[in-house]
Amino acid sequence: MAIGVILLPMLANYHTHSEFCDGRISAAEMAEAAYAAGFAVLGFSSHAPLPFQTEWTMEPDKLADYVRTIRALGEAYHGRMEILLGLEIDYIDGLCGPSDGRFDRLGLDYVIGAIHHVRPPRLGDDALATVDDGQDSFDALISQGYDNNTSALVEDYYKAATACIKAGGFDIFGHFDLIRKNNPNMSRFREDTVHYKAAAMSTVDALTGTDIIVEINTGGMARGKLSTPYPAAWILKELKLRNVDICLNSDAHASAHLLAYRDAGLQAAAEAGYDSLTIITAKGRERVPLE
Ligand SMILES: [Zn+2]
Ligand SMILES: [Zn+2]
């Protein structure tokens, strides 16, 4: 009797951290784990250095070693698994972004553009705060940075996201609605209001007609923060209606994240009406059927 075989799309992940930034294992260990798990393509995307010090971005003097290490891994796995060199580059309004060319000389295979920061109005003109730290710091951001005006926080986040997309200079838009990470059960702000949806839709509209790929990112699920991937199901449906391409990334900081909640990501894609994922290889982009 024939056994039915479900052909899942080839395993590819473009959102991978390592000890070069805030990942927990070395790039070599991550590559080994991905190869053992059957990945065909593994893209490294360390947090690019920012114009200021953080605990989670790569230090500028590690860049050359990063490039050398990932390229050497690419050679070591040649013919078995494709390894790509990327960076996750922050967009911060008025300060830096993927389009400013700071990393062009590295010959990256691709770039993830991402928003982690907002500019809390109550903390002064130069103040920046991240939205994806722990719950306590997110709550402090709401109370001290925004005087409990979560509508303004949501607006600032999506304004930055929209500006990031309009500035361009990257291939994949990372964790579309990261602002949801510290909003368990919509306890800090509603995500089903006209205001929230309009803010998020400005980012959807900016993506329309670009060649930017939006990632389905299961990282928030792997950290136990969310029960659904980024972006939320309704956003993914709006993206599909506008023919925006998607890929599926785990935002892995440890080897156990590589395949974590992949099924949920595939299901989210299918439920939004997608029948393919877009993959990037050294040869370029390609759409692979979902099944
Ligand atoms: Zn990120
Ligand atoms: Zn990341």
Oligomer: single chain
Gap from first CA to last CA: 22 Å
Helix and strand succession? EHEHEEEEHHEHEHHEHEE
Bound molecules: zinc ion
What's the story with the biggest beta sheet?
7 strands, parallel
Structure notes:
- By secondary structure, the chain is α/β, with parallel strands linked by helices.
- It has a single domain (12-289), classed as TIM Barrel (Alpha-Beta Barrel).
- The protein contains eight helices and eleven strands.
- The protein has helices at 27-36, 63-76, 135-146, 150-167, 194-207, 219-222, 233-241, 262-271, and strands at 12-13, 41-47, 82-90, 110-114, 117-118, 129-130, 172-173, 213-217, 246-249, 276-281, 284-289.
- Strands 1-2-3-4-7-8-9 form a seven-stranded parallel β-sheet. The chain has a two-stranded antiparallel ribbon with strand order 5-6. It has a two-stranded antiparallel ribbon with strand order 10-11.
- Strand 2 (41-47), helix 2 and strand 3 form a beta-alpha-beta unit.
- It starts with 11 loop residues before the first strand and ends with a strand.
- The relative contact order is 0.14.
- Mean pLDDT is 95; it is low at 1-7.
- Bound molecules: zinc ion (2 copies).
Can you tag this structure with a few keywords?
291 residues, alpha/beta, TIM Barrel, seven-stranded parallel β-sheet, two-stranded antiparallel sheet, 8 helices, 31% helix, disordered N terminus, binds zinc ion
Describe the structure concisely for a colleague:
With 291 residues, this protein is an alpha/beta fold. It contains eight helices and eleven strands. α1 links the parallel β1 (12-13) and β2 (41-47).
